[in-house]
Amino acid sequence: MPEILVHIVEGRTAAAKKALMKDITDAVVKHFGVPPERVVVQIVESPRDSKSRGGVPFSEL
User: Fold this and answer.
1) Annotated catalytic residue, options 2, 35, 36, 47
2) Domain 3-51 class?
3) In what residue span(s) does the 4-oxalocrotonate tautomerase-like domain sit (predicted)?
4) Which of 22, 27, 50, 58 sits most deeply, having the most CB atoms within 10 A of its CB?
């Protein structure tokens, strides 16, 4: 059972996350040859002040 974790900064819409999960599932089905019901996609959201790039929190970018 493939399990894919996607780490993002919070703020995306439910529709955008649903579309991403569907596209990822479709790609795994295509390239790994597994049925879609075996694919698990989890989106892990972080608050903007809990993630940084180059030492600068996303909340300050």
Assistant:
1) 2
2) alpha beta
3) 4-59
4) 58
